[in-house]
Design a protein that fits this description.
Layout (H helix, E strand, L loop, with lengths): L3 H9 L13 E2 L11 E3 L4 E3 L5 E3 L3 E3 L3 E11 L2 E2 L6 E3 L6 E3 L8 E11 L2 E13 L1 E2 L4 E4 L2 E5 L9 E6 L9 E4 L11 E3 L4 E4 L12 E10 L2 E14 L3 E4 L4 E5 L4 E2 L4 E3 L5 E8 L5 E3 L6 E3 L10 E10 L2 E14 L17 E2 L4 E3 L11 E4 L4 H8 L3 E3 L6 E3 L8 E10 L7 E11 L5 E4 L14 E4 L2 H4 L3 E2 L2 E4 L8 E7 L16 E2 L6 E2 L12 E10 L6 E11 L7 E3 L4 E4 L5 E2 L4 E4 L7 E11 L17 H11 L32 E3 L6 E3 L14 E10 L9 E2 L3 E4 L7
């Protein structure tokens, strides 16, 4: 049946998620997308190659169950793309299948997804990114294609493979990366060097699972572009048996009653066989399933009441054997109390969103040696169970919910089953009613603007043309509590007050006063700067409530002094360019008020780069390319162009630079960013601003821009007309 969403989408295109009109800030707790709490989230970019088909997992969500999914828009490298069944979405689950890729052009495909939740329509712009790559060049291989890793070896994590090229094919690889693949969360366990050496990431070696095979695909960059090398190398981690665990591993058994253990968990290579090594004290009656490891005690075994039997187990695979002392302990008793269904209840604490909780079984529960498990759960609860965000201890019955759960405020049901050690001891089920409450301290915050733009969408931007205009100017915050009608007390504090530019220690926040009761900021004329650093920021943190439910928002306020520089005044509006480093983009082109003749005006990024993570309070000068995370960004750029890295070089973001015999005008798609020579808009290229672990930069960049009015290459005359704010969530919804 045709989706109702398809027939109504054109009428609903103008409906936007509330988050699109909210100026985002950094929060100690994740903010919901809108007041209903509904969020839809697909995993990151997926790299695929020609002739491949691929199905992207259904999205995670927060709030009511989504339904009636549809693809609302597709772009290829930011240009509209006509979808000829290349991308097909499952209207019920939201899974997206990529197919018919033989003739698809390489590039970044952004897929916008619409769906309903609780009767409301939501449209998530660029919710999914698929990067179509070229086929791997002929003559490229990985040696060895399969790496045998023996965990018993000393320094096993140093095992490696290397990308090689056939010299006769003249393939020159300028950059080595792992292909992005949502199904392979283990990519972070590995590293690849600038020369194509693949090995384990030692920081994650303790997360490697013995007996697993890790298959890695590569993204290789040549002069022709980016290529996909699917399933390029396999790391086969072999091991003898490790970490045998029965749960429970200590039990009581009623005399003359048959008993079976739970099936144990174990690590190591496949093909395990189990055997009982010994029983202490020695006695007949215990057996073990050699395939599953389940231990059994025969009925009428005549074991005496009060005796305790400790069972040692030996497990063998093709790589060796291991003995596990006292793996299972059995105590013989005269009576096991059966389960009383009337007593099977849970003590549910008061629960709030985005919090971790433990929900114990009512202490009045009656039933010995009981085993607890989930049963017949559906929807988001079952998804959380599958993702180990909701777990149950089979012995105690305690239900645990992790802090990163995505349960929006509302009521939920968790179905639990308990069984006795034998059928005659009974069983029971119960439903735990979980009421997730909204955090009463949760709020949004913005300071508006004075630049004539939407005060919410372009919040926190203030421009002043003179000291008098700036003196005693008051910046008033707007605070909206999402659920609480009574306003909790808010504590206000500066995070950063004075931004340092170059060697100058006077920032726009000099002598500004923050009212710690109201959040009002009163500026001072002493913050009006006329030097090259004519822009800066103040960072304020607001906290509502106390204890576990305290909620904090950290927000930057940008201030520009409208200073004419040598007959030049370039006015970006907005003057804060907010951009998602995953997808990149263009700023608005500025209004050039002076000079009136623009034809000979040139602008280019030049030295003095200052980067601020919003949560960093101890470095008002910010970070330079000599420090992480910018260091890794510079490393990647120079590796891409196959040149020695220079952290003092502006080459990664300069349009006119010609160092290293490379004219940047010919590699604009490989630059981190640049000033467009015609419009003077700022370009940020996608997938460039991230560290060596693939984590995107989230913070604020001030980069000095040089200018000339005579058509020569800019160098010495400089100003700061625009700030760049990287936010990897921006534009996701």
């Amino acid at each position: 049946m045709k989706s109702k969403l398809s027939s109504t989408f054109n009428k609903l295109r103008i409906i936007m998620v509330a988050a699109l009109t909210v100026f985002c800030v950094s929060c100690d707790k994740t903010e919901t997308t809108d007041t209903t709490g509904f969020i839809l989230h697909y995993l990151g970019i997926t790299d695929i190659g020609p002739s491949m088909s691929y199905t992207l997992k259904a999205p995670a969500y927060k709030g009511s169950t989504p339904y009636d999914f549809t693809i609302t828009k597709i772009t290829l490298d930011n240009e509209s793309f006509s979808n000829n069944d290349n991308f097909v979405i499952n209207s019920e689950t939201g899974e997206i299948t990529v197919q018919n890729t033989d003739e698809m052009k390489p590039g970044l495909y952004n897929i916008s997804v619409g769906c309903y939740s609780n009767g409301k329509f939501f449209d998530f712009k660029d919710a999914v990114q698929v990067n179509m790559l070229l086929a791997v060049p002929e003559g490229v291989s990985v040696e060895p294609a399969e790496v045998l890793v023996k965990m018993e070896d000393e320094n096993w994590w140093e095992a490696s493979a290397k990308v090689t090229t056939d010299t006769e094919k003249h393939v020159s690889i300028t950059k080595y990366e792992f292909a992005e693949d949502e199904s392979k969360e283990y990519i972070k366990y590995f590293t690849i060097s600038n020369t194509g050496v693949i090995t384990f990431n030692p920081d994650h070696k303790d997360e490697i699972i013995p007996g697993e095979k890790y298959i890695l695909s590569l993204k290789l960059t040549t002069k022709a572009g980016e290529h996909l090398y699917p399933d390029a190398v396999t790391f086969n981690v072999i091991s003898k048996p490790l970490n045998l665990l029965y749960k429970p591993n200590t039990v009581r058994v009623e005399q003359n009653t048959a008993h079976e253990s739970q099936i144990p968990t174990i690590q190591g290579s496949k093909g395990m066989t189990y055997a009982i090594k010994s029983v202490t004290p020695e006695v007949a009656g215990f057996t073990i399933d050699e395939t599953t490891g389940k231990i059994s005690l025969a009925e009428n075994s005549t074991l005496e009441i009060g005796n305790v039997y400790k069972i040692d187990v030996t497990v063998t695979n093709e790589y060796g054997s291991a003995d596990f002392a006292e793996a299972y302990t059995v105590t013989i008793v005269d009576y096991i109390e059966p389960i009383d269904p009337e007593t099977f209840k849970y003590v549910v604490p008061e629960t709030y969103e985005e919090k971790a909780y433990k929900i114990p079984v009512d202490p009045k529960f009656k039933g010995d040696e009981a085993i607890f498990s989930f049963t017949n759960n559906t929807g988001i609860i079952q998804e959380h169970i599958n993702n180990n965000k909701i777990t149950i201890d089979p012995v105690s019955g305690t239900i645990s919910i992790t802090a990163d759960n995505t349960l929006a405020p509302g009521n939920y049901k968790i179905n639990v089953k308990v069984v006795g050690p034998t059928e005659d001891k009974g069983e029971a089920t119960t439903t735990v009613v979980l009421e997730i409450k909204a955090n009463p301290n949760k709020f949004t915050l913005y300071y508006g603007n004075n630049i004539g733009l939407n005060t919410v969408q372009h919040a926190n931007q203030f421009a002043y043309s003179s000291k008098d205009e700036m003196d005693n100017a008051e910046l008033i915050p707007t605070v909206n509590f999402l659920t609480n009608t009574t306003t909790p007390n808010i504590k206000w504090e500066y995070q950063i007050k004075d931004l340092i530019g170059g060697n100058k220690s006077i920032g726009v926040g000099k002598d500004a006063v923050l009212d710690t009761q109201t959040g009002k900021i009163t500026l001072s004329k002493n913050g009006y700067t006329t030097g090259s650093m004519n822009m800066g920021l103040i960072i304020v943190k607001a906290t509502a409530g106390d204890g576990d439910l305290a909620y904090s928002v950290t927000t930057p306020i940008f201030i520009r002094c409208n200073v004419e520089k040598n007959g030049v005044f370039v006015k970006y509006s907005p003057f804060v360019f907010k951009v998602n480093p995953k997808i990149g983009g263009w700023s608005e082109a500025p209004i050039i008020e002076k000079p009136t003749d623009h034809t000979t005006l040139k602008m280019d990024f030049r030295k003095d780069i200052n980067y601020f993570n919003i949560e960093i309070t101890d470095n008002p000068k910010g970070l330079t390319p000599t420090s992480s995370p910018l260091k890794e960004v510079w490393d990647s750029f120079f590796a891409d162009i196959d040149k020695t890295v220079s952290y003092s070089s502006i080459k990664p973001i300069s349009y006119y630079n010609t160092d290293s015999n490379i004219d940047n005008k010919s590699i604009t798609d490989r630059l981190l960013g640049y000033v467009d020579p015609i419009s003077k808009a700022i370009r940020i290229n996608p997938e460039k601003w991230k560290n060596e672990k693939g984590e995107y930069i989230n913070g604020i960049l001030f980069a000095r821009i040089a200018y000339t009015t005579d058509g020569t290459i800019p160098n010495s005359q400089v100003f700061y007309p625009i700030a760049i704010w990287f936010d990897e969530t921006y534009g996701d919804n």
